[in-house]
Amino acid sequence: MATETLPVSAPGVTVTFDAEDGVAVVTLALPGKVNKINPAFGAALAAGLDAALGVKGLKGVILASGHKDFCVGADIDVVYASRDPKEILGVVGQLNAGYRRIETCGKPVVAALTGSALGGGYELALACHHRVALDSPKVLVGLPEVNLGLIPGAGGTQRLPYLLGLQEAVQHIAQAQPVRAPKAVKAGLIDALAADRDAVFAAARAWIASNPSPKQPWDAKAPLPGGVQPGTEAARTLAVGAAAFLFSKTAGCYPAAEAALRCVFEGTRLSFERGLEIESRAFAKLATSDQAKDMIRTLWFGKNAADKQEGLPQTADARFQKAAILGAGMMGGGLAFLCAKAGLDVVVRDIREEALQAAQARVEEQAGKLRHLSAQERAELVGRVTFTLDLEPLRGADLVIEAVVENLKVKHQVIREVEPLLAQGAVFASNTSAIPITRLAEAAVNKDRFIGLHFFSPVEKMPLLEVIQPSFTSEDTLARCLSFGRAIGKTCVVVNDGYGFFTTRLFAAYLLEGCQLVAEGHDPVLVEWAARSLGMVMSPLKVFDEVTLTLGMHAFTTREAVLGEKLNLAGLDLVRAVVAAGRPGKAAGAGFYDYEHPRRIWPGLKELVKAETPAETGVVHLQRRLMLAQLAELGRVLDDGILRKPIDADVGAIFGLGFAPNTGGPLSWADRQGLPQLVAEMDTMAARYGARYAPSATYRKMAADGARFYEGP
Q1: CATH code, 418
Q2: Distance between CA 402 and CA 118 in Å, rounded?
Q3: pTM metric for this prediction
Q4: Residues acting as catalytic residues
Q5: 302 is a domain residue
Q6: Using one digit for the tens of pLDDT, what is the confidence trace for 47-70?
C-alpha cells in the first residue's frame, strides 16, 4: 500500500494515511519506554486525531502504539503529586473529551493492541469502536486502579457494563486483575485476536471496511448484555448483593472498590455524560486522598523500585546453572518448581523418600498449571528436576538453598556435608525464617558466599524474597542472588542480619498479640474481625492455623534459645493448651478453627481461657492493640539496624506478610498517625499491658524532632 505521512501539531505521535483503503493510522509514541496518560499524551492524541480526521477520503482510523505496550494507564507521578481535586477534574475532563471525540467522530476507530492496555489505556481502547489484540499471553488488558486506591477515571465504569453486563463489569473492576489477551477475548474485554502485528492491522482494516458507520452501544441506548438492566428491581438486588459480597472481602477498608460499585450502578441509570461526571468526581476525591497516596507510594513506587533493584549491586555474570534444594517439604518442592521454571537444572535432596515423592508431585502439579506452555515444554520443565536421598548428585551445584528443619545443629551438619561438593564460586543460601545467618555461617568455609534467602509460603504465589546480607557476605554474592530473585519473579528486599530479620519479627508480634488478646478474655471472633477491618489480609488466629501452631511454638522456642529471652505471655500458654487439645492447625483439620462446614472458631476455645471479660474492649481498642504491638516490634527492628530504608518495611510487610495494603504499610500508617501521638499511645499501652508496647529509641527521637518516615503528600 502507498502511504503518506501527515503533518501533526504535537510531538509523540505520527499519522499515516493510505488513500487506497482510506485508513489513517495514529501511532502514539510518547518519550520514554511506555505511553502514559498525562497532558502530553492528551495533546498528542488530540493532534493525531486532528490530522487523521481532517484528511480527505478518510474511511476509518487505527489507534496504535510505537512502544511495546499500547498504553499502561495514568502517569502515576501526576496523580501522586496532586492534592487538588479541581486539578484532577480538569485533567480527567480533557481526557474524557478526547475519548468522546473518538466515539462521535463519525468514522470507525479501531484499537490495535499489539501490547498491553491497562487503566486509562484500556479505557482508550473501550472508547474505540473495535479492539483487536495480539494473540499473546504477554498482552494484558484491564482496569487495575482499585489496587492503588483509585477507580477507573476515564469512563471505565460507564463503558464496561455495555460490554460485559452489570455483574461481570462490577466483578472485573472490583477485582482489579488484568486479563491475558486469550482470556480477554473470551470474557468480552476485547473483540478479536490476531497472530502477529501485521495480522492485527490487517484485521483492523478489514473491520473498518465492513463497518463504515458504527455507533457505541451507550450512544445507541442499547440494552446491557446479561439481562439485568439499570434501574430495575433486578439491578437493585444485584447492587445490594454486590455490596455485601464486596464488604465480605474488603471489610470496608477500600473506599475505591465501593466507589467503583456506586459509579457503575448509579451512572448507568443516567445519561452517559452524567455517568462520566459521577465517575470523574469520585476519581478526583479518591486520587487526592491519604489512602491513595500511601498505597501509590508503596504498591507502585516502592514495589517498582524493589523489582528494578534500584540502588543495589548488579553483576553481568549472574546466572546460576544448577540449584541444589536441601529439604523436600512444601517449600522445597515449590522452590524446585520455580528454579526449573527459570531454566535451572535442579536437584532436591532429602533423607525421607516420602518427602521426595511429595515434592515431585508438587513440581508436577505446578507445572501442569502452566497452560501457556505446551505439554512437551511442561514435561521438559519437570524433567529438569532430580530427586535424591544421596549427597553425590549435589556435586557441581552453583547455588544451594537450604530449607531443612529450623534447628541450628541440623543446619550446621548439612552445611558441612554439602559445601565441599559445590562448584567453584558457588553460593550457599539458607531459607531460615529466623536463625541469624551469622550463626549458620559458623559452619561454612566460604562465608563471603553465604547469604540468607527467606522465601514465603506458598512460595509459588507469595511475591516477596527477603534477602539477608551479613557483614561478611560479598557484594557479588548479593548481586548474583538478586539476579536469581528477579529470574524467578520475586520482589526482593535486602536487610541486615539479626534474629528473625524483619518479617518474622513483625509476623510473630502479630500472631502473639492476637493470641494474647484472646487469652485476656476478648471474644476471638471480635479479635479476628478487628484484624480484618484494619485491612489485614489474614486474621491472626486464622493465619496461625495456616502455619500450624506446632511450627509457631517451635519458632518461639528457637527465639528463646537464640536470644536467651523468656516470653512470659498468657497468649503462648493458650497456644500450648490448644496444641495439647490435639488441635495443631489447619493441616490437621483442627486448630483455633473448626474446619468442617461451616468453618468457625472452635467452641472449646473459650473453655481454655481463664480470664474474665476485660473492662476495655471493642473493635477500636483491639485494632489499636494489634497495630501498636506490630509497630512497637518494628521500632525495635529499626533500633537494631536491620532495615536499610523505610520503604523496605512497607513493601516487605505487605508483600511478604499480608499487612494491610490499604495503609501503604506499617511505617506509612505510623506517619499518618503522627509519631508524637504514636509514642504517647505506646507509652500508655506499655504501662497497662506490658513492655512489648514500649516505643523504640528511633520513634522517640523522630517524635521529638517532628520527623516523618516519608516526605511528600
Answers
A1: 3.40.50.720
A2: 39
A3: 0.93
A4: 123, 145
A5: no
A6: 999 999 999 999 999 999 999 999
